[in-house]
Amino acid sequence: xxxxxxxxxxxxxxxxQVIDHAVPRTVGQGERAxxxxxxxxxxxxxxxxxxxxxxxLPGSPLDDLAAFHVVFGKSVPDVSLNAxxxxxxxxxxxxxxxxxxxxxxxxxxxxxxxxxxxxxxGVVYVRxxxxxxxxxxxxxxxxxxxxxxxDMDAAAPEAVVPDLKKVLTPDDLVIPQGLDFSGxxxxxxxxxxxxxxxxxxxxxxxxxxxxxEEAEHMMATRLWQNTAKVHFDATFRxxxxxxxxxxxxxxxxxxxxFNGLANAQMIVALNAGxxxxxxxxxxxxxxxxxxxxxxxxxxxxxxxxxLRLVATRGGAPFALKHEDGKYxxxxxxxLDYWALMPR
Length: 343
What we know:
By secondary structure, this protein is of the alpha+beta class. 19% of the residues lie in helices and 31% in strands. It is built from 8 helices and 11 strands. Strands 1, 2, 3, 4, 5, 6, 7, 8, 9, 10 and 11 form an 11-stranded antiparallel sheet that branches. Helix 1 (29-38) runs antiparallel to helix 5 (214-223). The longest helix is centred in the first third of the chain and has 16 residues, at 64-79.
């Protein structure tokens, strides 16, 4: 018997199947340092233990997206090793902050299957949960992936497309225990703008850009132990290019959004996300945001703000879709999320 793992193909998945992912990972300060080396991340809550303690937390957590990448990476060998592309996200929630010294593991449940009309690929929907060493859920999210078939003659399964929430409500948000922004230091945070300064519908051009390089992308995918072939193997795509990991674009855009949203400190929910167009080495990523909604929370001094974060291939800000509803060629990412901000 072959001892190597070729990865799962579309016909290997079943509705209700639960997959426990291998290789738990203990995260530390090195994880934070590498994350901040890869991305221009400057949000104060994730940079300073003292700032985090002044906000009611025991210390500075690991960046929310760093925790997301670790959990996501655990799922890749079982979910997307033979993926053509990761298509979208929904119902993502950060449930417990991750601190240096925590050990993360993950599992996924198959919640939907739909073969594509070409008979060569299908879409697999999963709900993935990450847990720490105490068994506490730290985050959960749904995603759907286009996966190759091994056997083109394999019968198509009954199509099941899960009914996922388009938007999580403020009541769905989990506020970290003890979080208190009533004594928030705007000077140390880097910008004076608070929750009340933003209007629904407002758009923000984050101005800065970063040109993607192969070296940093490969470091990121190795750091998160993301083994999807489209990111590593240049022979896996007909065009001979390695696809930049979509999470790399998410983190890059989030870091760029600091300029204008420095006080949107904690991501607590992911409503929706689409990798609109592929990104390759040499592309320059820029970002803009739109305020979609706002809500009060029960935590002292804490407001929730719903944001659309758009990453572009250096395109003009605020251009998103054509009249036919399709994304413009310059749009790389369209992400809808909730963040916590001082009121």
